[in-house]
Amino acid sequence: MTSTEFSRRRFLRSAAVTTSAIGAAAAIPSAQSQISVDTSPDLHEFDLPPLPFLHGVASGDPLPDAVVIWTRVTPDEAAFPGSGVGLPTTLHWEVAEDDGFGVVVKRGEVISDPLSDHTIHVDVQGLDPDRVYFYRFTVVTGPHEGAASPTGRAKTAPTGTVDNQRWAVASCANWESGFFSAYADMAERAWAGELDLTVFLGDYIYEYAHNEYAGRGPVRKHHPAHEILTLADYRTRYGRYRTDPALQDAHAALPWIVVWDDHEVANNNHREGAANHQPYEGEFSARRDAAMRAYYEWMPVRHTETSAKGRLYRSFTFGDLVDLTIMDLRTYRDVEFWRGGSRQPGDARTMLGTEQYDWLTDTLEQSTATWSALGNSVMFSPLHIGAVFNNPATRPIAKSLSSNILTSEVPMPEINELPLNGDQWDGYDFERRRLINTLGRLNKTPIFLTGDIHSEWCHSIHHGGEEIGCEVVCSSITAPNAAESTGVPAGSALFGAANRYLYAANPDLQHVCLDSHGYTVVDISPDTVRIDWMRVDNVLVPESPTRLAHSMVWRKDHGFIA
Length: 562
Hints:
This is Alkaline phosphatase D family protein. This protein has eleven helices and 23 strands.
């Protein structure tokens, strides 16, 4: 179905699910892993909210005195995302100290435009630090005059002495693979004041065609149904995602700091192309530019600090406690080594590019915070899986983790010889070692916050024989994990065997779970970082419970503690 075929009726209705498979869900040995089911869920539709605020509200990029607030207005039924039509609409916006808007501190007007897909960004300035604010938009002109948006909750960054920050860390949400129950849990905790921020590390959308990458789904259908290529396609896909009530609630509940990975453009993209872009699909640069434009339109990012300067990498400060440095690991990277031939001694491919690396170094040098958090969309730590591959029983699990490198042309590896895949930092080892040396030289205590791999991991980071920090990897919101990619039931003993191989081959590995979905809470205090992995019981079930499944604590100048 093309964008022009995305009719009024389909725009006004969206797919949900009540699945006959729920009752057939099998019990599994490992607590809170995703339930394994053998039958596909049924697709059903539900009505969307009325116009004009179909896509909710959002906030992002919090500073001590400012935060970006976002919405999209739909002026009429023809002005669906990607349509390029609809009259400009004047909106009044308000920011208040209370959710009843009794004490309004900032207000103004803004006009939507079809050239920006009727998305609205307001960079609200002059706010107080470390303060919760509430915001809303109201239509001033047109047939929806007086209509009010949902109320959003934002929070500014703190200054001075800061004792604690609690961040939700998330990535990899595939619309067709499951329901966004993890987002619902994030929203509930945020509205209760338990979270300060969401750090989203990429793969907010997936570019694939309907049923091409659905795991045990699809539970609902992509729009457009084909692989997305054009600006209209990307806008339509974002619009589809933002009709999800749980995602809307998670955006409304607290500010997000976001970065893209590959699927916001195309699988395994790099500076000059992507694995999932073919010559018959047109110029890659045109596709990339369209994808980036739609991303800036639909995400709550500060345009003057990002797209206006042609970059997404940026940094944030949370008092004396922690700096968060967001790295863009896609736009500037060289092609991964296995696509460009065998890795040779001295291979110095770049993940960051010269300008971004210099900016990162300067940012780290200027930081005086206790912790250096690095938003990192792909696995930073070395990961070897030769033993998992060599055992025929666990080989499917190895292939699911390393499909980008384990091909028929690669000889069977010996134990510990094979890095996970060249798409991650394993393919850019020279620059990884250079970054570790920079962190060590500057005496930084890094917390790498990572997504991408659809499973839970935790690693120690070493420099000069000393443990200087850790890497925290969240599972996917819904994108297929190793269980769904292989057909091996979640909780199978094969995952236990694979885990034992992984621990033996990777001495810095502290935690791994390959068959879960969810997100991670990172609780930062002056001396410790507590890591809580939150797991969804079953992503095929709407409003499935999300539970604390595993916790670890890393202490400054000590390492992981029991």
